[in-house]
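For this section, I looked closely at the sequence of one protein beside the tokens encoding its backbone, which the following lines show:
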Amino acid sequence: MDANRNYINENIVNISLMAGKLIADGKISVEDHAELTDHIVALAESFEASHKDIDYNAQVKAGEPAPDYVEDIDSFAEKALIEAYPPKEEVHWSFAETALGKFCMEEVPYRLRENFDIAPDTLDPDLISMLAERLFDVCLDNDSMDACIEDFLSERGISMEERTNEVLTEEQALSDIRQYLEQQSDQYFADRRITKAEVLADTELLTQLAGRHHCLVNMFAGNREESCMSACDDNPGINMDEVYLMSGSVKKEFFCGTPADCEKFCEEHNWSYVDENAFEWKLALKSDVGSIKPTLAQRIQNAASQAGKGVHDELSSSKHRDDGR
């Protein structure tokens, strides 16, 4: 260019061109364009001050590289603008926040029950969620869903061949659970803040316990007595409680047991715990502050309430980017 390139106005023009290119390429994210304009002026003045000793129009000796104003100001502007206006991270919606995710969360329990003769409540809720996410990721057609589910179950040692030769029927599983509970002492139930009569009269709870027992024995070759103990004392358990480590809004699972065991643990530690990093946590009971992890039913309900949100917001985001170009 003929004119002296060290003029601030020329710097403003070139920095503005670079800003437009970076916005178009998605390399910077600008919300306040008035602020960007002021920043461009400041950058133009800064470039002028830092390059005032360079004469871009001066004659250079043969064999020596000539200073390149365009290259210098583009490099300066790109670095400064990206540092000041870093691109926003692309939003990735959880599969459960979309209509397809909601469908998968509902379809997996249905297909397990209808096509594989597996009661969903006999499986870990996290396993159900992982399987739903698998279906969501591959977006299979109707005929391929069952094959995907079967592959997933096989990967985890849950095969249909084993289920066709059941060691334990559902009726036997329920009978085992009843027998196990009837053998327990009154203190066993007192520690769980419930009576033996209440547990034996709770049909829904007994069905859940029997379902878990049935699953452990048939799918994982579990010992029947140990399986009953695991179902009643661990997962799903009878009125089990948990101790959480808490600091502000942060909650971490720490100890699981009966309500009596959990209360005793907290009282013995004066409702606080110092970890290996000498950080002191407050102790709290799940029964007092609520569960950290939502249940499968809550996940499905949350997915239903969020259905379509991901698609709507992605469209809104796309429109915003187009408007900003």
Q: What stands out?
A: The chain is about 60% helix and 5% strand. The chain has a mean pLDDT of 78.
